[in-house]
């Protein structure tokens, strides 16, 4: 009997994280999904299994900005040996840097950088010899001009750099490290911005499209690592929110 595949996914209550959790469950993973809140929609409208081997999603409510209690929370709630870690939770605040609050900067650094480093540190031994780590970064990590989002871009550049060097450090032990760089995606990431992506199909990605790319990379044959995925809509257009 094949060993059960266990995945931990942060940011699993909505957006890209939720889509990834659903895809993995459909492929037979037992998924532990961490989210700050899970709405009734996320609880009652999960898609039905597409095959007999489909797994399940354990929804774990936790505020990842509380890193001191995180080790105990994981010990109590995440059971078994991980085969996949997906760091997808993200925080984003936009605007001139001097207008950002210290709390907003702290949240971005904690959720976008510190938490992936802490979770990788905790589970890396589990993932040696064939496990995988997926870090969902952002296309802004590769851009030099992140005006009105320079702090957010800096946190994503940090996690992308961490991913690249972690792969070099652990590749001989069989760990696959996959970094995903999505561009504008139809999620609630922009709730603290004065803009949203245009809703034309060629101007925005869907969370499901990003999740499909992640699943393709995770399911690559042994010996092949898709280390860097960049997904971009054909056109770049945003819509300013009404004041």
Short description:
The protein is an alpha/beta fold. The chain is built from 6 helices and 9 strands; from the N terminus they run E-H-E-H-E-H-E-H-E-H-E-E-H-E-E. The protein has a 7-stranded parallel sheet, sandwiched between helices. Strands 7-9 form a two-stranded antiparallel ribbon.
What does this molecule look like?
With 243 residues, this protein is α/β, with parallel strands linked by helices. The protein has a single domain (6-240), classed as NAD(P)-binding Rossmann-like Domain (Rossmann fold), CATH 3.40.50. The chain is 35% helix and 18% strand. The protein contains 6 helices and 9 strands. Helix 1 (15-26) packs across helix 6 (207-218) and helix 4 (102-127) packs parallel to helix 5 (150-170). It is globular, with a radius of gyration of 17 Å. The termini are far apart.
Mind telling me which CATH architecture this is? 3-Layer(aba) Sandwich
How do the helices and strands follow one another from N- to C-terminus? EHEHEHEHEHEEHEE
CATH topology: Rossmann fold
- The amount of beta strand, in percent, is 15-25%
What is the number of helices? 6
Largest β sheet strand count, sense and barrel closure: 7 strands, parallel
Low-confidence stretches: 43-52
Cα distance spanning the termini: 58 Å
Shape: globular
Number of domains: 1
Mean pLDDT: 92
CATH top-level class: Alpha Beta
C-alpha Rg (nearest Å): 17 Å
> Helicity range of the residues?
25-40%
Q: Keywords, please?
A:
243 residues; alpha/beta; Rossmann fold; two-stranded antiparallel sheet; 6 helices
């Amino acid at each position: 009997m094949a060993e059960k595949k266990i995945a931990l996914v942060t940011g699993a209550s909505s957006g890209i994280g939720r889509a990834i959790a659903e895809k993995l469950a459909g492929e037979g993973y037992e998924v532990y999904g961490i989210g700050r809140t899970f709405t009734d929609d996320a609880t009652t409208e999960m898609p039905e299994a597409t095959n007999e081997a489909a797994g399940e999603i354990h929804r774990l409510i936790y505020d990842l900005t509380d890193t001191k209690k995180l080790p105990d929370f994981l010990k109590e709630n995440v059971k078994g040996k991980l085969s996949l870690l997906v760091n997808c939770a993200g925080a984003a605040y936009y605007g001139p840097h001097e207008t950002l609050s210290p709390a907003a900067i702290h949240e971005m650094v904690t959720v976008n950088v510190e938490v992936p480093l802490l979770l990788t540190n905790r589970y890396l031994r589990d993932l040696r010899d064939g496990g995988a780590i997926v870090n969902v970064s952002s296309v802004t990590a590769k851009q030099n001009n992140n005006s009105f989002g320079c702090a957010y871009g800096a946190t994503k550049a940090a996690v992308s750099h961490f991913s690249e060097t972690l792969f070099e450090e652990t590749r001989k032990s069989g760990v696959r490290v996959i970094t995903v760089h999505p561009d504008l995606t139809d999620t609630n990431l922009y709730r603290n911005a004065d803009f949203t992506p245009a809703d034309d199909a060629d101007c925005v990605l869907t969370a499901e499209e990003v999740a499909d790319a992640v699943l393709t990379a995770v399911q690559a044959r042994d010996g092949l690592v898709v280390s860097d995925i960049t997904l971009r809509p054909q056109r770049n257009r945003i819509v300013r929110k009404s004041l």
